[in-house]
Amino acid sequence: MTRAAVWEGSAIAVREVRLPEPGPGETLIRISAATVCGSDLHTVSGRRPAPCPSILGHEAVGVVVATGADSPVSVGDRVVWSVTVSCGECPRCRAGLSAKCCSVRKVGHESFAGDWPLSGGYAEHILLPAGTAFARVPESMPDVVAAPAACATATVMATLEAAGPVTGRRVLILGAGMLGVTAVAACSVADADVRVVDLDEQRADSATGFGARPDDGGPADVVIDFTGSTPAIAAALGRLDVGATMVLAGSVLPAPPLAVDPETVVRRWLTLTGVHNYEPRHLTRAVEFLETTQADFDWAELVGSPVPLERISSVMSPPGSGRLRSAVAP
């Protein structure tokens, strides 16, 4: 048996769950740590619909303890894994959009009453199906640094790919949460001129420690939004210089519509694009980025001390004390 924290709609209950034997292509992992993504906070606060009951959690790190035939990893590997599980065969997968697979399944987003109960990171073990992408994690990387790679860091890698080269460009990051701060650091490392805005002045100020400078309201060559705020996006849209690109990644909940003037887009040669989830290559890049920047940025300081599974309810709210993520150590 194993234990899992099951979201029941009004509370989270720790339950005993039968430990499965991995089938073909499947991988059983003992979870070391899981961080609490904002989307899970949206679920428990009622802002985002989700299957119920379910095991939430999609940012986690752990060690492989058993595999079925043809699993892409081996027993003993320390790994992070993708949020999305794809078929690899549908038209979207063949077009390189496996994150939007026609039959996509998602870690931490599946029904506990369905055929994949151990699907979330808030548990001692998780069973990952065939079609899950993995990235091996070096032993030198702490659990609380590695876990966000599975969502926050990998998503940032996808947004930067969509934005194109940022070296020497003026980059404006909207939102100084975990994704925003990670994007600031990545752009700083790439020698971009990075600015960040956030309604929380303390968070915006803390981003300066990762390479941002205070926003001066000037024009931008690249804007990456992690807020999902229509007013913030509209304000940034007016700051796009000729040939600029805006990448939207935070608009994952219903919001007021955004007014866009087509003539401005044409005459200023603007690019507007969206990113939702990420591809396997972005997960690999995420781990590599965190590994190569461990000496430059104190990633662990952004995450609170992990709590045991029994205390998970205590961290299902926005973290305080300057932290950007809470964590659980199942």
Automatic annotation (TrEMBL):
It is an enzyme of class 1 (oxidoreductase). SMART domains: PKS_ER (SM00829). Pfam families: ADH_N (PF08240). Gene3D superfamilies: Medium-chain alcohol dehydrogenases, catalytic domain (3.90.180.10). The keyword ATP-binding does not apply. Residues 9-295 form the Enoyl reductase (ER) domain. The keyword Transport does not apply. One of its GO terms (molecular function) is zinc ion binding. PROSITE patterns: ADH_ZINC. Its cofactor is Zn(2+). Its EC number is 1.1.1.1. CDD domains: MDR_TM0436_like. It comes from the Bacteria. GO terms for cellular component: cytoplasm. PANTHER family: ALCOHOL DEHYDROGENASE 1-RELATED. This is alcohol dehydrogenase.
